[in-house]
């Protein structure tokens, strides 16, 4: 039976541990990881980005088999921005030598993938979430329409928006969403900007959270570079209802992180993170590598066109274990990642948070 909407809305304050395992599209999010987080008292999320409806359904069904606790799924909001096809074509020309060296063919610039439309099966995924009675649906790369919010609410599903600026908090609040992920610039992976060409802000998460709390009464989920229990305690004390971590779970046993990516997180060759749009066309933070150095200043801000353009290069590099040529998404706290079961990682973070809170006179 689906949860009543009021029950769904009470999931965040009702969590035994207010830690959310972030949705990480492209492999790291697995049913096993999401279920482990939920089973441990937190909240697990799946990333449905880049998947077709059949793969999304399989992900939801597998997770349902592994937990009786609430979990969520994240859906990409399709872009309505005009596409600069000439810029995509120029970037393709720049990447051709790398493609030739890797023995792969690049898709023609501006060519649509008939098997995967640019809207990432948006409507189909919303319908799947309703059909599978997923308790929470979060959105990134934009805000859902009021009609989509109402449709999910009618099905008893809580709606979570993802934003990276105070102005976006106000826009999300006006939609009547049930919670808002406030993402600071320290976050790994894609920034939660509302359009392809929006310039990411650089307001630190701690400050952004305080300003967001003045702009809305909706529950806030703090995200971005969180790697320590003490940081979790500080964010909860500053008004967050929960804290969302992704990078912290990349080395979890249940994560689907590619071997080269997993190894790079502890490889001394990689010493810093940087923001780039070279891999997807959207700004995203990852371990600085050779691909970023070579192409970041030339990549156009066109998503998903750049994502699909670089896909053959990234797949070939992952197959040969070349960490210098794949997206190594990671937040600024990546040096503190731990390996082991996700439940152990989550529990250790919460124990550290409780200790930090007690040290500062909290309860």
TrEMBL record:
Domain of life where this protein originates: Bacteria
Flavoprotein listed as a keyword: yes
GO molecular function: dioxygenase activity; nitronate monooxygenase activity
Oxidoreductase found in the keyword field: yes
SUPFAM superfamilies noted in UniProt: Inosine monophosphate dehydrogenase (IMPDH) (SSF51412)
Gene Ontology BP terms: response to toxic substance
Catalytic activity, as annotated: 3 propionate 3-nitronate + 3 O2 + H2O = 3 3-oxopropanoate + 2 nitrate + nitrite + H2O2 + 3 H(+)
Keywords attached to this entry: Detoxification, Dioxygenase, Flavoprotein, FMN, Monooxygenase, Oxidoreductase
Cofactor: FMN
InterPro entries in alphabetical order: Aldolase_TIM, NMO
Entry similarity comment: Belongs to the nitronate monooxygenase family. NMO class I subfamily.
Name the UniProt record assigns to this protein: Propionate 3-nitronate monooxygenase
Lineage: Bacteria, Bacillati, Actinomycetota, Actinomycetes, Mycobacteriales
């Amino acid at each position: 039976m689906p949860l009543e909407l009021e029950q769904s809305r009470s999931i965040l304050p009702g969590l035994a541990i207010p830690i959310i395992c972030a949705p990480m599209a492209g492999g790291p999010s697995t049913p096993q990881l999401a279920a482990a987080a939920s089973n441990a008292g937190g909240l697990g999320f799946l990333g449905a980005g880049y998947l077709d409806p059949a793969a999304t359904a399989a992900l939801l069904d597998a997770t349902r088999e592994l937990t009786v606790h609430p979990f969520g799924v994240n859906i990409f909001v399709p872009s309505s921005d005009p596409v600069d096809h000439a810029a995509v074509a120029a970037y393709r020309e720049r990447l051709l030598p790398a493609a030739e060296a890797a023995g792969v063919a690049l898709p023609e610039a501006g060519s649509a993938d008939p098997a995967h439309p640019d809207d990432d099966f948006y409507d189909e995924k919303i319908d799947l979430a309703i059909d599978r009675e997923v308790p929470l649906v979060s959105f990134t790369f934009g805000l859902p329409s009021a009609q989509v919010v109402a449709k999910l609410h009618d099905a008893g599903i809580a709606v979570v928006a993802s934003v990276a600026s105070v102005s976006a908090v106000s826009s999300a609040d006006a939609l009547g969403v049930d919670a808002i992920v406030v993402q600071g610039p320290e976050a790994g992976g894609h920034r939660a900007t509302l359009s392809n060409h929006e310039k990411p802000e650089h307001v630190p998460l701690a400050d952004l959270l305080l300003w967001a709390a003045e702009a809305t009464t909706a529950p806030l989920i703090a995200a971005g570079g969180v790697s320590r229990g003490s940081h979790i305690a500080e964010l909860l004390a500053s008004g967050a209802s929960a804290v969302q971590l992704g990078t912290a779970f990349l080395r979890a046993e249940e994560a689907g992180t590619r071997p080269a990516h997993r190894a790079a997180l502890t490889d001394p060759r990689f010493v810093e993170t940087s923001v780039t749009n070279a891999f997807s066309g959207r700004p995203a933070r990852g371990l600085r590598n050779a691909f970023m150095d070579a192409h970041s200043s030339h990549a156009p801000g066109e998503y998903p066109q750049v994502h699909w353009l670089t896909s053959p290069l990234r797949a070939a590099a992952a197959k040969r274990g070349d960490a210098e040529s794949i997206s190594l998404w990671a937040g600024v706290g990546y040096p503190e990642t731990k390996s082991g079961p996700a439940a152990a990682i989550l529990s250790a973070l919460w124990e550290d948070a409780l200790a930090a809170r007690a040290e500062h006179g909290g309860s």
